[in-house]
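Hey, sorry to bother you again with one of my protein questions. There's a protein on my desk that I can't quite get my head around. No rush at all, and the record is pasted right below.
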Amino acid sequence: MHNLLLLIVCFLAGGLLRGSGRLPSATPSVLNGFIIHVSLPAITLLYIHDLTVSGDVFFMAAMPWLHFGLGALFFLLLGKLLDLPRATVGALLLTGGMGNTSFLGLPMIEAFYGKEGLASGIIVDQLGSFMVLSTLGITVAGIYSDGKPSPGDIVKRIIFFPPFIALVIAFLLLGTDYPDWFSAVLRRLGDTLAPLALFSVGYQLNPVHFRGNGLGLSLGLGFKLFLAPLLLYLFYVHFLGLGGLPIKVTLFEAAMPPMVTAGIIATEHGINPQLANLMVAVGVVLSFLTLPLWWMVL
C-alpha cells in the first residue's frame, strides 16, 4: 500500500509545485527525457533478465496486443464517425490503447492478489505492454506527429528508442548472471520511474485543459476503464474458457488506467498533449474506484 501512497503524493506534489511557480516550465520535458533514457531502460534490463515463463505466458503476453488492436479499431472508427481532429485520435490511440501495467499495475496486483500475482503482472507488462509501446506505440507516435515521417524514419525511431535498445540487450543477456552491484544500480535507477512519471503528469495537469477535451476524454476513459476490459474478459473467460490466478491478474491488468509512458510519448511528439495528460491523470484517479469493481467481477 505504501507504493500507492507514493504515487498519490508524487502526483499531488507535481500539481502543487506547478501552481507555486517554483519550477521552470521545462520541468516536464526534463523529467520525461530522464524517464525515457534512463528509468525505462534500467527497468527493462532488470526485469526481463529475471523473467520466468509459465504455461499461460502466451495468453498473458497477448493481452496488451489484443487491447491495442481493439483500441485502434474503436478510436479510428469513432474518429471517422465523429470527425475527430487527427491529433485527438492519435492521443487516444496511445493512451486509450495501452494500460499502466507497471508502476500502478504491480502495486495494485500486490494489494488485491498478493505477491504471488506479481510474476504474472511482470510478464503482462514486459512481454506485452512494454513491447507494444516500443513497437506499435512508437509507430503511432511517428504517424501522428507533426512531421509525418516516412516508414524508414518510423523504423529508426523504434530501433533507436532507448527502452527498445535495452529490451534487445536484455534478451541477449538472458542466462547471464548480473553482478550484484549492477543489479543494485539498475534497481535504484528503475525506482525513479514511478515517482518522476506521476510528478510529471501532476505538474502538467491544468483544469483549463478540460475545455474542448471533454468528448475525447469521455470516449478514451470509457473505452480504457470499461469497454476494453469487458471485451477481453468475455474473450478470455467465456470464449476461451481460461481461468486461474494468472488469467485473473492478466484481466485485472487490462482494467488499468492509461499508461503514463504513452502519455509522455504523446506529449514529446506534440500529439494533443493536453488530452494525453488528462487521460493519464483522470484515469489514475478514477481507477481507484473502478479497479476494486473489476476485482470483484474477476
Residues 29-297 form a domain with the Na+/H+ antiporter like fold fold (CATH 1.20.1530.20). Residues 61 and 128 are 4 Å apart (CA to CA). The chain is about 75% helix and 0% strand.
